[in-house]
Amino acid sequence: MPFYFVSASDGTNVVKMFRDAIAAAYRYRKDPTDFIDQVLQELEGFSSEGETEDTSSTSGGSASVKPV
């Protein structure tokens, strides 16, 4: 979202700022992917891949120790 210079005393650019903020929030609500969301999705993918590899590599009834 862009940076706005607004005046609370006479209302200059206040309405435009709120309209743009609402429009940006609506766009984000419809498509919530941003850089942080993409990184978190990748990290979730790594943790689930690591869990499946750990459980598939164990043999018989031996317990596996997962790092914390």
Strand tally: 0
DSSP helix fraction: 55-70%
Structural class: mainly alpha
Outline, from the CA principal axes?
rod-shaped
Low-confidence stretches: none
Largest sheet: none
Order of helices and strands: HH
| Rg value | 24 Å
Average pLDDT reading = 78
Quaternary structure state of the chains depicted: single chain
Give the end-to-end Cα distance, rounded to a whole number of Å.
38 Å
Beta-strand percent range: under 5%
How many separate helices? 2
Please describe what this structure looks like.
- Residues 46-68 are annotated as: Disordered.
- By secondary structure, the chain is mainly alpha-helical.
- It has a domain at 1-43.
- The protein is 59% helix and 0% strand.
- It is built from two helices and no strands.
- The longest helix has 23 residues, at 35-57.
- The mean pLDDT is 78.
Descriptors for this entry?
mainly alpha, 2 helices
Quick structural gist:
With 68 residues, the chain is mainly alpha-helical. It has two helices and no strands.
Task: Please outline the helices and strands.
Layout: H1 14-30, H2 35-57
Region (Disordered): 46-68
